[in-house]
Amino acid sequence: GGGVGGLTLAYALAKCQDVRVDVYEAATRFAEIGAGVGLFWRTQRILTALGLRDAVTALGSQFNDGYVPAFECRKSDQSEGVFIDTMLIKGGLTAVHRAEFHTILINSLSTVPNVGMHTSKRLVSYTQPVDPSAPVELTFADGSSATCDVLIGADGLKSVVRALMMEEMAKKAKREEDAKAFRDCIRARFSGMLVYRAILPSDRLAAINPGHKALRGPLQYLGKNKHIVAYPISKGRFVNVAAFEVHFEDEGIVFPDPWVSKVDARKVAKMFDGWEKEVTDIMSVMSMQEVSRWVVNIVKPLPTYAYGRVAAHAMCPLQGAGAGQAIEDAAVLSAVLSYPGATIKTASKALESYSCIRLPSAKLVTDVSRENSYNSALSVSGKPEISLSDLALRMQKCWEISHGRDDPLKDARRAVNLFGKALTSTS
C-alpha cells in the first residue's frame, strides 16, 4: 500500500543498496486523504534517523527531545469552560498536514534507487510456496501477477494481505477454535467512535476570534460523550479539527454505513450547542466548511504479525497513534530485512523476530489509547465520576505510555539481535 506506513518502509529499505522494493497501490495515483496527523517523540526519532527531520519540520513544527507542553485540555460542555491541565508530552506534538507529509515521502523515494511504484494494483491473492527458496506469487484484480521474496501488507484496516494471512493460518490450524480466532481478526468492527473532520482556514477563525487558542497550538475540548481536537497545520494557514462523538454501547458491531461520508456541517455544529465560546467559534466556521464523518473501526488483537514470508497487522487509530505505529513498524521491519543474514531462506525468521518485538508494543499502545478514548469522553465505564485533577493524571499517564517510552530505535536493535540469535541456533 502507498500510504504513510508503506512509503516509510519502502524508503527505509531502499536506502539499503541491495534491497529491491516494489510498492503496489490500489488507487489510480499515490495520494493521501485525511487532514492533520500528529508525530510524537518516538516517531520523530525514527524520521530523524531516516534523514527526514528537516523536510518534516519545514512544514511548520519542531522536533523536541524533552518534555514540552502539547495539548491544553479543557472541560468545555458548558457556557464557561474549565481548564483541566496541559499535557506534557516527550517531544511535544509535531502537527502536519497528512497530504504534505505524504508528499515528503513520495519525493524522498524519488531520490533512492531500486524502488518500483505501481498504481491500480489491488491484490486479490498470494501463494506462499513450500520451497523456502521459491518466490511468493501475487495476483492482482486486473489479471496481472508478480513475485516477491517478502510480502508486507501496509494496506489499512481493510487489509487484503491481513485477511489472506489470517485465512491461510485458519486453514492450517489444527483446532477449530484456533481457526475461528484467526478469522475473527479479519473483519474490522466499530470502536464506538465517530469523528467529524474538517480543515478550517485560520483567517476565518481569526476573523471572529483573533485570540483563539487553536490558532497557536493544540487544544482538546472535552465533554460528556463528545470531544474536539484542534491544532494549527501548514505553518498556521489552517486549523485541523476532529470532533468526536462516542457510542460505546455499540462497540463491536459491524457499522452499517460507509466508513467515510459527507455530512451536513450545520448538524455537526448543532451537536455542540451550549459549549464554551471557543468551541462554538470553531463550529461557526466549521458549519461553512466541507465536513466528513469517519467511522473509527478497529480489529481484534492478532496472535502474530507474520506468517511465513508475509507480514501485516492493523494500526491503532486512536490517540494520534495510527501513523506513528506504522512508522515504528517500518523501523523494525527495515532493520531485520536489511540485516546481512536476511535472505529469501531466512526471511520468515526475520519477520518472526519483527513480530515478537512489535506485537506487545503495539498492543500496549492500543490498550492505553483505548483507555484514553474513555477519558476524553468523560466516560469511564463502571467507575464512579472522578475529579478533573484525577482525570488529568490518567490522561497524562496514557500519553506518556503511548508516545514517551524508550527510544524506538532500541526496538529495531532488539529485533535484529533476536534475528541474529535465531540464525545462530539454526546454523
Describe this structure in words.
With 427 residues, this protein is of the alpha+beta class. Helix content is 38%, strand content 24%. It is built from 13 helices and 18 strands. It has helices at residues 4-14, 41-49, 53-57, 98-109, 160-172, 176-183, 202-208, 265-270, 277-286, 322-337, 347-376, 388-403, 408-426; strands at residues 21-24, 36-39, 67-75, 82-90, 94-97, 115-118, 123-127, 136-140, 145-148, 151-153, 189-201, 219-223, 226-233, 238-246, 260-263, 291-298, 306-307, 310-312. The strands form five sheets. The protein has an eight-stranded mixed sheet with strand order 4-3-12-13-14-11-16-15. The chain has a three-stranded antiparallel sheet with strand order 7-8-9, covered by helices on one side. A hairpin with a 6-residue loop joins strand 3 (67-75) and strand 4 (82-90). The radius of gyration is 22 Å and the shape is globular. The two termini are 35 Å apart.
List keywords for this structure.
427 residues, alpha+beta, eight-stranded mixed sheet, 38% helix, 24% strand
